[in-house]
Amino acid sequence: MSVMTYIGAIGAAQQEAMSADERVIIIGEDVEANVYGTTGGGKQRAEKGDFVEQFGQNRIRNTPISEEAIVGTAIGAAMTGLRPIVDLSYSSFLYMAMDQFVNQAAKNRYMFGGQSSIPVVFRSAMFYGLNTGAHHSDRPYPMFMNVPGLKIMAPATASDAKGLLRSAIDSDDPVLTFEAVPLWGQKEEVPDEEYHIPFGVARTHREGSDITIVGISGSLPLALQAADEMEARGVSCEVIDPRTLVPMDTDTIVRSVLKTGRLVIAEPAHRTCGAAAEIAAIVADKAQHALVAPIKRVCALDMQVPFSPVLEREIYPTKERIVAAIEAVCADQLNQVNRRAS
Amino acid sequence: MIDGLSLPKDELLEMQRRMLRIRLFDERASKMVKRGYIPGTVHTSIGQEAQVVGACMALAKGDHMTGNHRSHGHPIGMGSPLGPLMAELVGKATGVCKGKGGSLHLADYEVGSLGESGITGSSIPIAVGASLSAQVLGEKRVAITFFGDGTANQGVLYESMNLASAYKLPVIFLCENNFYALSTPSHTVTGGRIVDRASGFGMPGVRVENGQDVIAVYNAVREAADRARRGEGPSLVEVMTYRFREHSEGLRINVDYRNAEEKALWTSRDPIILFRDLLIEKGIATADEMDAIDAEIEQEVEDCATFALESPDPDVSVAFEHLYTDDYKLENVL
Ligand SMILES: Cc1ncc(C[n+]2csc(CCOP(=O)(O)OP(=O)(O)O)c2C)c(N)n1
Ligand SMILES: [Mg+2]
């Protein structure tokens, strides 16, 4: 095991995949100079591990600023023998290529009766909470969850990012990755050997018996902090990260709620029609009899992202908001603890 | 430069066969829409056969093609057998896409047909991608994408042309200029000539003024394909042609947006009759030989319709297949 950052893990997965399979290429804006830090040994191009030096310009290509053409070209290349990784940098830029995601990537295999497979990965990062203003801060993964035919991963830790990205690159279906920039610097122990994490398998970060907390992407560390705090106050928290949103391991979440009877879901996307809404609906459907309290969602508010740091802070889930949600549905436990204490 | 007329006789006759297949297939499809055998609607390529076949015949085995909503001619031009195409239009299990695509989404990977597109412009970058894979993998194939004059005003075309030119990709952008985007006369919504846009991207642009002449189309596309195969990059080919029927079958537009004179002029330039006459005039084939080809294709189309109508419906379980390559479990399957 060695300690790696979240962004380092993404670079490492790309490096391994490029070495393992000649058909893997990386295209995107500014990938040759490693501007976003996932196509080189370090931030600087000259550092050892530079992808252009290792793999050559045939397989690492800067593109024009043409998101629609880049995405469509990658789809066509995937349908005819390559396994492209497209670095779209900011998740907010996916909208430029919406037609290609929705009408080509997601539909071609289905419409053509299985004649094509489309092994392509579209990487993008959610630059939220970083004072980049409304045009660069989106967390749009729920929009794409509404497009059957796409697979979606939203890892929250370094080891998950690495193992899931390898699976994404090896998958024969189009995968969208939503990386959380606030987590880029977070470190975790990562296995030294190559490994894959299957899609559709949730990770239970801690076990507990009073409440299930689902933390997605950048909200996972906050959920874990909230769980620590509540544990100290006598509430036993189970914290689950689904890791992939399509397919989603709802079984693990439902099983957990059958045990705890309570559910709080935290995610950085908007509340309306978000991943949390979908999880809440599935749990209401499959574990309604076990629920002893309403399901609470802690999401980004349904509003645009303001620029000023003072303003931006207000809109995303925080540890405090998650704690407040837990308090609201765990009043019984907290009262008991208080009674015992007094 | 290769002159199509110097091609071996069997290839020239094959051009006529493919044009006839498109004509008779689409005439039959039109009737089958009217009689309710084909659900939904279809867009015929009747009148544009030379533009389609001249282009497809200029390609080689292993090349790729993406098309648009005027969707039957392209796979037929690439050599796709008619039975599974017609069965697809009818929605049968034996359809080339197992009954899941329909008229607008024909694809036959056996002949390099990567897919037609109901969304105009959407399949243009897909062909660029097929040419990128050829370049990266060092394979000598080329790709072609067909789009209309109306579609030529979509931004995705220009992103694609620029990318292809910058990377010197082996791809041909073929504009099927039939003067109208549905009911809208092209010149009223288009600035300048489409072909002139090529030079802005540093690629050759040629306009085939007589797109009813299959050899003229062949020659232009053959040159673009040879150039692409030599590694010299993409080309834009604009072919002037005309659709003889309404935009789509069953569509009734009360405003007479195409006048009778214009229609009469163009229908007098029937690409199939023109080519037949040319082959006979040049002494390449006899009238009897050409008659025999007519009869042969008439039979083929008769057979494809019978095949389509007699084929079984798809099993309902097929609706739930092919969303992903692995056995992903749908929530709430019926
Ligand atoms: C993105 C998109 N916009 C609009 C349409 C509706 N539509 C279908 S065909 C068509 C006209 C296309 O004209 P052109 O590109 O010249 O092709 P033609 O039908 O003349 O062959 C329109 C507007 C569509 N299918 N897709
Ligand atoms: Mg047109």
From TrEMBL, chain A:
SMART domains: Transket_pyr
Cofactors, names only: thiamine diphosphate
InterPro entries given in the database record: THDP-binding, Transketo_C/PFOR_II, Transketolase-like_Pyr-bd, Transketolase_C
Any one GO MF annotation of this record: oxidoreductase activity
Domain of life from the UniProt record: Bacteria
Segments forming domain Transketolase-like pyrimidine-binding: 4-186
Keyword field contains Transferase: no
Keywords, ordered alphabetically: Oxidoreductase, Thiamine pyrophosphate
PANTHER family tied to this protein: PYRUVATE DEHYDROGENASE E1 COMPONENT BETA SUBUNIT, PYRUVATE DEHYDROGENASE E1 COMPONENT SUBUNIT BETA
Protein name: Alpha-ketoacid dehydrogenase subunit beta
